[in-house]
């Protein structure tokens, strides 16, 4: 029996994708071997990789002057690669701090440059996005970095910042959840293990004019241009994760694309937030305008019941609802592959639990 998986990552994958991968596990299209066993240089695998990139370009309407890279190291390695590649002779970069992941990016960037924190909600325990008119940007900054959706605190930007310098965004937890104007960005990066595919892969979408001119001493493997020039195959890539991500892209197309996914995702989130707001037993501390569509943290009126809530939820097939260890409480991640039926089941359980324990 398949359960409903609300994990923040590695996260749920579409069941039909898993079934297809299962069917192709031992014999990919009559080749007599698994994708995991293929040479990444073979014509069969190159076709898989090229199709995955094209499908992602189609889904996101990625302009032709952007390179799409399928790399290793996760989003966390991008915290270093970004300043290495994008400082381009400048000494300062702008960062917005709206939670743990943007804070980690800031700490890593400080190893390479002066970091100007243009805005932070840390004093408010990361419950909202600072108003754009309060940001203290630096006109001489190499780039402006922000995290559109923070998985831990459940804070999501309700706008794309205007920027006169290259805009850089960590889209790990909300990429492919809704349409996005890629042309507004210099670079977008996203760890795969939430809305793209399995862990072990990170996708980087970078404007071509930002390639090259890395800082002195940058390792070859951390140079975007090297990967762009070699079609993400300078070394052996995460071949199976890339293949599975390609199946997810095809699944998204079959669902109707990102416009359709946005419709479904907004409906899922609205159902859960409605339950949190209308059942007095639950609460959510995030400013309404900045509530995440993907990651919904919530608290119980009686924290002593948290372990009971999780135990009973698990028994109902509602898994991975514990909040991040740094903040506690509960958290439901509603990524693309989490079906609407999962949210309906969670809401029904929450209502029943509140009635029995309120």
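-> sequence recovered:
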């Amino acid at each position: 029996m398949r359960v409903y998986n609300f994990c923040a990552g590695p996260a749920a994958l579409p069941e039909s994708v898993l079934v297809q991968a299962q069917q192709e596990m031992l014999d990919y299209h009559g080749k007599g071997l698994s994708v995991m066993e293929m040479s990444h240089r073979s014509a069969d695998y190159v076709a898989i990789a090229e199709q995955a990139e094209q499908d992602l370009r189609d889904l996101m309407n990625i302009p032709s002057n952007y390179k799409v890279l399928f790399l290793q190291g996760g989003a966390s390695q991008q915290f270093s690669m970004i300043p290495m590649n994008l400082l381009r002779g400048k000494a300062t970069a702008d960062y917005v701090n709206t939670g743990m992941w943007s804070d980690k990016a800031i700490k890593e960037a400080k190893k390479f440059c002066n970091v100007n924190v243009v805005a932070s909600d840390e004093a408010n325990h990361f419950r909202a996005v600072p108003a754009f008119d309060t940001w203290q940007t630096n006109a001489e900054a190499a780039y402006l970095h922000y995290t559109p959706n923070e998985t831990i605190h459940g804070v999501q930007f309700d706008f794309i910042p205007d920027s006169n310098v290259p805009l850089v965004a960590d889209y790990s937890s909300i990429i492919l959840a809704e349409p996005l104007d890629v042309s507004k960005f210099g670079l977008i990066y996203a760890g795969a293990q939430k809305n793209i595919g399995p862990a072990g892969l990170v996708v980087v979408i970078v404007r071509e004019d930002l390639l090259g001119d890395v800082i002195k001493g940058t390792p070859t493997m951390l140079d975007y241009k090297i990967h762009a020039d070699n079609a993400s195959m300078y070394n052996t890539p995460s071949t199976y994760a890339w293949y599975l991500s390609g199946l997810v892209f095809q699944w998204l197309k079959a669902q109707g694309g990102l416009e359709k996914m946005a419709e479904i995702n907004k409906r899922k989130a609205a159902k859960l937030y409605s339950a949190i707001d209308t059942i007095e037993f639950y609460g959510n501390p995030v400013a309404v305008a900045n509530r995440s569509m993907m990651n919904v943290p919530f608290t119980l009126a009686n924290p002593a019941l948290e372990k009971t809530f999780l135990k009973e939820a698990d028994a109902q097939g509602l898994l991975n609802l514990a909040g991040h260890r740094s903040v506690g409480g509960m958290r439901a991640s509603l990524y693309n592959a989490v079906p609407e039926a999962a949210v309906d089941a969670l809401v029904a359980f929450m209502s029943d639990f509140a009635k029995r324990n309120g």
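The chain has a mean pLDDT of 96.
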